[in-house]
Amino acid sequence: MPDTAPPxxxxxxxxxxxxxxxxxxxxxxxxxxxxPAAVAAVRGALALARTTREGLTAEAVAQRAAExxxxxxxxxxxxxxxxxxxxxxxxxxxxxxxxAAIEAATEAMRCxxxxxxxxxxxxxxxxxxxxxxxxxxxxxxxxxTVVNNNAAAVLVALNTFALGxxxxxxxxxxxxxxxxxxxxxxxxxxxxxxVEVGTTNRTHLRDYQAALAADIGLILKVHTSNYxxxxxxxxxxxxxxAPLARAHGIPLIDDxxxxxxxxxxRLGLPxxxxxxxxxxxxxxxVTFSGDKLxxxxxxxxxxxxxxxIRQINRNPMKRALxxxxxxxxxxxxxxxLYRDPxxxxxxLPTVRHLSRPLAQIEAMxxxxxxxxxxxxxxxxxxxxxxxxxxxxxxxxxxxxxxxxALGFGASGAxxxxxxxxxxxxxxxxxxxxxxxxxxxxxxxLEDEAGFLANLAGIAP
Length: 460
Ligand SMILES: *Cc1c(COP(=O)(O)O)cnc(C)c1O
What we know:
The chain is of the alpha/beta class.
């Protein structure tokens, strides 16, 4: 190997920071990003040129500083195309909000709002009052409150009724949800003592009865959101636990996880417990998420007996877990849409995506294939593939929705390259690789033209 000659030392031809800033492009940087950031970026560009011993004009340094600043100022929370086939993808932000919710949230951001102020009486009000009536109307519950998310709803309920006491739960329902939500850990942090009853596959009413001899604060029923126990199984329904809890004077709490406000089978979807049914079954409190099937912003709802909700609202933990005006505005607008269930699919993206007819998705896939094939080039064989979407976020586990995908066939390394190229697009496109094929499930794609315009920038 012959020695390569060191690069010629051109650094003496580098301009000063001041000179770069005074150029036309330098002034543009100051205008756009402010003097300190512009100077720091120019220093950075000069330091880099010094390490590579490059000579650069002042304009060229300004250009490099501009590129660095543009990279640095691009938002980190970037919009993406969710073509994973998981409609409520936790890592991609779960539910997309309805336009009415977006408008309400925007207005709340821009204006002073009557958050804790009763405009009629001119007195201090409560922020929960904004959505209490709606929640009660839609669930049949007596009272309602809202916190940061459903994990917080479970946490504050456990802490309110089982601090230093036992919380009884079936061994078949000791769930772990993604993101470190493990029921035993939440119980521990809530200050409750976990009292497990039954076995993984079978829990009987007598198991609960036996546990109630000790100092118990509540019975918790948990919807097994992300798994199913099948075969030789028994679980006790909330309706059968309710009389037991009542006889012992302790609340029965039903954590529905996703829950839904409408009967999903009316949309041709698999059944998921409705909050109203859980309330009617006799749970004293029911907890559920705002950004799962409900299709709103991140939030956790607790509905049920007024005396229990009052106790939760007096817990200082509730204050630490409360939601802000922006989300309350979006929640109120989202809940209002449920007063007209027939038009939900038009207005609520989550419902629209879940209930989208297969034929419509397939037709879109067939329309897209020729243009997409031309953009990715002959190394990839693009075809319409049948696939199965998932609801996601622990709703309807085990059920899938027939859908259609753009499939890209190629060797493993080429597929990884394609997936990376899709992620590098202005709006990253997120799909799924399985069985030597990259699939882009089109269930959640609505902006077909925008998708193609974005994809035109691909360089696999
Ligand atoms: C999803 C889920 C939670 C957590 O809800 P987040 O809104 O994600 O905090 C709790 N319990 C069950 C059963 C769930 O499915």
